[in-house]
Design brief:
Length: 380
């Protein structure tokens, strides 16, 4: 990106990255329209195969949304009514909703300050004889520390399902995040790094039997597993969404390079203590920057400064899920000190594939100068 806009610097631009794809999408849509193959056709099949390959698993199963993917994956991992699933409070509602809809209990544990991801030590401390699964969430596109998480799961005989709604393209120690855990789930909501033009999701499966069961369930076929009958329902990935996603997938690497460059620009202005830190440096981790965050005890002042300079920002997960209305269905697995501090301090900056680099420099400079003044005031 080489030019800067006089307009406000928005957090998202869903249209500009679509423009290079428009003609190809429209040409495909005309063929689709006269094909008569509107449900589970060749576009879904191609997307499932490509996504499985890129995510390092044997099969992908397209479903109606990221929320449906979570619900189905947890069910096929054996989560039953009354079971406990350990997860993070610093996440979107859908993570918790899927557990509750299975009549299971979300157990919330604290996060790490460096990457805002679930703490492996907090997971182990929260395990009981009711624990069935662990659900890490690579928040904002940063990889969770999966080696200790999987070691804990193996030690206690637990399943791992990764909520990858924000993490397609994320690598942990050189391997795709989708390849960790028994299953992982994706969302193709329009604001995601790999976006559709509506709802859509996918379950990434290491075990072909899990994929076969989910394909039955998404098409209204009941499945019996572990002495439990799981009802089928309608959760098919729309063929139109798959068509758009196939086109966008071919451009994913190019768009990620632009996101990465914006992240590098911000890193040049923002001190490490105020942003994402790699907990396994030099070991092949890669962040996809679904969001770029900065933290400060004077967040409201920083947000106001950026707003006055034409920069849109956002605050997520304040307060975290342990203070959400759904918390009455949850169990707290220990103190939530870091999750609550993140809720108070974290501010989301603009980052997307169409963000001009000049705009990124403007935002980074404003934030860096604010943090420098904050440090000077604290030292005086």
């Amino acid at each position: 990106m080489s030019h800067s806009s006089a307009k406000r610097i928005g957090r998202y631009d869903l249209v500009t990255p679509m423009m290079p794809c428009k003609d190809e999408i429209m040409e495909k849509f005309e063929k689709f329209l006269v094909s008569g193959q509107y449900i589970l056709g060749k576009e879904v099949d191609a997307l499932e195969k490509d996504m499985a390959q890129q995510c390092g698993v044997c099969e992908g199963v397209g479903v109606a949304s990221g929320s449906s993917a979570l619900f189905l994956a947890l069910g096929m991992a054996g989560v039953r009514p009354g079971d406990e699933v350990i997860t993070t409070p610093y996440t979107f509602d859908a993570t918790i909703e899927a557990i509750i809809l299975l009549d299971a209990v979300p157990v919330l544990v604290d996060i790490q300050p460096e990457d805002l991801n679930i703490s492996p030590a907090a997971i182990e401390a929260a395990i009981t004889d009711k624990t069935r699964a662990i659900m890490p969430v690579p928040i904002y596109g940063a990889p969770c520390d999966m080696d200790p998480i999987n070691a804990i799961a193996e030690k206690h005989g637990l399943e791992v399902v990764v909520d990858m709604a924000q993490g397609f393209g994320t690598l942990y120690k050189g391997k795709p995040m989708g390849s960790y855990g028994r299953m992982s789930t994706l969302s193709f909501y329009p604001t995601k790094n790999l976006p559709g033009i509506g709802d859509g999701g996918m379950v990434l499966c290491k075990d072909p039997q899990d994929a076969a069961r989910i394909r039955k369930i998404r098409a209204h076929q009941a499945v019996r597993m572990n002495d439990h009958l799981y009802t089928g329902w309608n959760s098919r990935l729309d063929e139109v969404q798959a068509m758009v996603l196939n086109v966008r997938l071919a451009r994913f690497a190019e768009e990620q390079r632009d996101r990465n460059r914006v992240g590098e620009i911000y890193d040049g202005y923002i001190p490490a203590a105020h942003r994402l830190q790699d907990i396994n440096p030099g070991q092949g981790n890669h962040v996809t920057y679904h969001q770029y965050w900065v933290r400060t005890t004077r967040r409201d002042e920083l947000q106001k400064l950026l707003d006055e300079n034409g920069v849109d920002t956002a605050i997520y997960y304040d307060p975290p899920m342990n203070h959400h209305v759904l918390a009455e269905y949850c169990r707290e697995g220990g103190p939530m000190t870091e999750a609550e501090r993140a809720g108070r301090e974290v501010l989301i900056l603009p980052i997307h594939a169409a963000l001009p680099f000049e705009d990124a420099h403007k935002v980074g400079k404003l934030v860096g100068e604010f943090l420098a003044q904050e440090s000077a005031s604290a030292a005086s």
